[in-house]
Write a structure and sequence with these properties.
The protein is mostly helical. Helix 3 packs across helix 13 and helix 5 packs across helix 7.
Length: about 280
């Protein structure tokens, strides 16, 4: 048997059941912390401190929703959840809408310096968030936006737009020119062409962008720590405050952390098919 044939047999076996088993094992290990957090959120604080979360499988009577009831009775946590939604949803919608319009303009509209402006947008992708924290904090202070939800939304929108424009411009550029020319011959203006022809085709790319932006904003803590106060803080800052102030209130931290984690997971799994399609868009001609 030649070395090439032997290598081919190894690849064939690796591509079979062994890989599936390996991936299943990796997936189970990846889900283990999530399961542990869920189980911990359904146990009493004294039981969490006494033994591991896996004890619940031998004593299912430990499961209770008292921690979630206590969480709902905690005004700081519930207010922070509302603030998180009020920050994440507008920041995601603004990035999708503005990024779609700008991406279409860079892909199919002629204007002076178009390529240079696009290169500038691409260059903004490498600008770290930390560089802008102090100057934008000073700007928001002068405008009266520091500590407000609007300020956080504007910050996330500004830093989400370069990636949005880059992603959507490349997707829009792959739309056949003949399709757009046919719509123009039928009397469609640029706005109607964008809304009726381009956007329906851009569903996977828009869904991918929305998921990226939603996950980034929902899980953010650095920007929220800098630009929010006690009235506008999101769930990430509220949980960090709970840890810093009390340290042992796991009956609030466990369910709060699980809710904070399960929402973006639910959004991702709800749109995972569109996400995969958007990520693979343009990979195959």
């Amino acid at each position: 048997m030649t070395a090439k044939a032997f290598a081919g047999k190894i690849v064939e076996k690796v591509n079979g059941g062994a890989v599936r088993v390996f991936l299943i094992v990796v997936a189970l290990f990846w889900l283990l912390p999530t399961v542990g957090l869920l189980v911990s959120s359904l146990r009493a604080p004294e039981e969490i401190g006494a033994d591991g979360w896996w004890k619940v499988f031998s004593e299912p009577s430990q499961l209770t929703f008292d921690s979630y009831q206590k969480l709902l009775d905690n005004g700081d946590i519930t207010d922070s959840l509302v603030n998180t939604v009020m920050i994440t949803v507008p920041a995601t919608l603004l990035v999708v809408v503005i990024g779609s319009l700008a991406g279409y303009a860079f892909a199919w509209m002629e204007f002076p310096g178009r390529d240079w402006w696009f290169l500038l947008v691409v260059g903004l992708l490498v600008v770290p968030v930390q560089v802008a924290l102090i100057p934008i904090a000073e700007l928001f202070g002068n405008l009266g936006l520091f500590g407000s939800i609007l300020g956080v939304v504007l910050f996330h929108t500004g830093f989400g737009l370069p990636f949005a424009v880059f992603l959507l411009r490349n997707f829009f550029a792959e739309i056949p020119r003949e399709l757009l020319e046919a719509a123009r011959l039928d009397g469609a203006g640029e706005l109607r062409l964008f809304a009726r022809v381009v956007m329906p085709l851009a569903g996977p790319a828009v869904a991918s962008l929305a998921i990226f932006q939603f996950l980034w904003v929902w899980n953010d803590m650095l920007v929220a720590l800098v630009f929010t106060n006690a009235d506008s803080q999101p769930i990430t800052v509220a949980l960090q405050t709970q840890v810093r102030q009390f340290g042992n209130n796991v009956d609030i931290l466990a369910p709060g952390a699980f809710i904070s984690m399960v929402v973006p997971l639910a959004v991702f799994f709800a749109f995972q098919r569109q996400f995969v399609s958007g990520v693979m868009a343009g990979a195959v001609k």
